[in-house]
Amino acid sequence: MSFLDVLYFIIPSAIFYAAPLILTAIGGVFTERSGVVNIGLEGIMIVGAASSIIFNLMFADQLGKLTPWVGLIVAMIFGIVLSLILAVAAVSLRADQTVSGVALNLLGLAVAVFTVKMIYDKGQTDSIAERFSRFDIPVLSDIPLIGKMFFVDVYATSILAFVVAIVAWFVIYKTPFGLRLRAVGEHPLAADTMGVSVTKMRYIAVMISGALGGIGGAIYAQAIAGNFGASTISGQGFMAIAAMIFGKWHPLGALGAALFFGFAQALSVVGSSIPYIQDVPAVYLHILPYVLTILALAGFIGKANAPKASGVPYIKGKR
Amino acid sequence: MSKRLVNILVPLISILLGLIIGAIVMAISGFSPVEGYVALWNGIFMDTYTMGETVRQITPYVFAGLAVAFAFRTGLFNIGVEGQLIMGWLAAAYVGFKFDLPTVIHLPLALIAAAVAGALWAFIPGLLKAKLQVHEVIVTIMMNYTALHVANSLIGTLSGGDERTPKVQETASLRSSFFESLTDYSRMHWGFVVALIAVLVMWFILEKTTRGYELKAVGFNKHASQYAGMNVNKNIILAMVISGAFAGLGGAMEALGTFENMSKLHGFTGIGFDGIAVALLGANQPFGVLLGAILFGSLKNGGLNMPSEAGVPTEIVNIVIALIIFFVASGYIIRVVLERFGKQRKEEK
Questions:
Q1: β-pairing verdict for A134-135 and A154-155
Q2: Which of A85, A104, A124, B257 could bridge to B191 as Cys pair (CB 3.0-4.6 Å)?
Q3: Cβ <8 Å between A107 and B29
């Protein structure tokens, strides 16, 4: 296998594994920018994965090729519903955000597996018939070298992930909404004084993260896993949080970090058939994203600063 | 209404609300809530076997709860209990099968190895927090996944490519034929005694030693403690290390008592995360943690009986536990309601 062949092999699968991480990480950027820590992204991804798979199994006959896409919307709705629980607890009831996020993870997994067992009488669903399929992008795929790396066998979901990241960058940095969002996360008191509703902004941000986390989970389930069980989503939500931090709370940074983590995941899956990499014990590739995140936080890879008010409930009138 | 009474009422009301919503969920899903909860009750108290298993389930929860609570008291949120527990489990299992020693040395050695492994795993986030102000929540989460993969890989290496480590020697086991005969061959073991001792140790450290006073002081106000001449950084690291040692001992309970070995894990045990619930419910007090562990351990073990007896998936118990955490965490609203209620009563008088 030549070096180029390795690239042709590994880059598409890296992007493939990264797509769910990108979307969920962008969701994390939105909440944290508004000052709410969302540890519950894992639970949201689980619910998104479960709801999309159940929907897919039920309606594949009627909807055919469209099923996975409608499944994304279903997952988005369920993700928003779950995230609202966090919003109510953490924003309105001033609950500890990390604790409620942990509870959200427990709840998401429990509800998802409970529902699956109730409907199918077993812990794991059958495999879905309608998956996301891949295609070659016309014209672009004919570009020598790059074409075969980036534009052959592309999943539409990967394109969606890139588009969402760019849109998120535009929304957060180039629109009045984004300015308010960031203001609320850095200095809620000042934002409140200027007439920005802290509660409203935080609710919207948490719901956006619910929507994107749900979609992320659905993409993982419908493109990578193909079914749903208790261990379908195992750590992808936390890896997305890691990508968000590694990307320094910036949408495009998160995109880059998620791509890198996708690359690590792809390596650990397909690495056994690639020269040199097959000699590296798989455990190093497994722990790479997590260790890198710790190093990033420790400031070895440039200092990462969280939004100032992140994790602190805003209580009106309190200095 | 006195503050003390409200502090007791908040967890009680949360438990009640959790169970009520659990019943509603069962009713909506087409199960009978009464049958479900009877099955849950039977799964906890039906016979000596189930009671022995319930005690077995409670034991690691005590340690996980103590670990989370201890860190909380110094103002640290140790989500990494899960990872520290895994490392402790592995260390105890390794020492347990590797050495040939008399019980009086072997068993304590295995327990100490577990505590040290957990403490080391918690030392890293503690050090990063103290020296570089890195938030411990994210670091400990990342350490959890690292622990999972590292442990799985090490189990393969230690056992020569097997899926599980060899059984621990009898000299390191916490099992006893006395409990087996008493509880109809349940997996109940001496660990609960170790757990009770751990509760007393935490109480003693926090309430009766200067170091414990400092740890609590740092938890209340870092800057005031610094001003009073306490070494805040040292206390942060120490709190994490002690917390990790408790978590590691929780792993030892699994290694030396419940399973007597360690198999490769497909996912987290969940004990560490449930420890957050235990600590929260027990208001981070050692004896509160004991009560919280008894409740959640019983719920977890009783839930295993629900599918066979009432046809309800076990996960309903996890739903109830998650809801209880939400309600305790959102204690603010319960407090407001209670205060209103208390005021109205006063006016009527």
A1: antiparallel
A2: B257
A3: no
